[in-house]
Amino acid sequence: MSYNAVPLNIIDNGHSVQINYPAGGTLTVGNKIYTLKQFHFHHPAEEEIEGKKFDLVAHLVHSNVEGHLVVIAILFKKGAANPLFDTLWKNIPAEKEKAVEVNSVTVNAKDLVPAETGYYTFQGSLTAPPCSEGVTWYVLKTHGTLSAQQLDAFAKLYPHNARPLQPINGREIFESK
User: Among the residues of the chain, which ranges form H helices?
Assistant: First the structure.
């Protein structure tokens, strides 16, 4: 993961708060490079680890030149505040479905990423319509934190914008070392 700071481009798209990420981040998997397109949030988290539930998840959506999607899921529990959430929440546009560029504010997706980046990976689908298949998922093992106030601020907008946990349906889940 290699992410740089970019001017904040934020939208309340009607089902989440989304940060559009102009050329400023890449993910390299093997010899393939994926560009970070956007990240958004779900409350509660749409993923569990060994039956443990989480309060929020950030989905970092990447695409390569062939259009293949890779999503990194970063889970969050209530705890210490994360300054990035304060920056994002205070800049959510009042008008839904209208992206706003806040040139005076920069954000960096790496501020969401925990120091430990071990993961689980599997093939799945997008979690919002059209729920297209063929998405490679990386769910980080280590979670981040956000304060109760930061979680409450998001939950006021989206008290439950998560897809229910999906059955494994025979899909293989691999774990990094």
Answer: 83-89, 148-157
Enumerate the β-bridge partners of residue 70: 62, 136
Q: How far apart are CA 92 and CA 19, in angstroms?
A: 10
Tens of pLDDT, residues 39-68: 999 999 999 999 999 999 999 999 999 999
* Cα 134 to Cα 70: distance, rounded to the nearest angstrom: 9
| Alpha helix positions (H), 41-142 | 83-89
- Domains parsed from the chain with CATH numbers: 2-175 (3.10.200.10)
Residues marked active site are found at: 15
- What is the length of the chain? 177
- Dump pLDDT digits (tens) for 16-43: 999 999 888 999 999 999 999 999 999 9
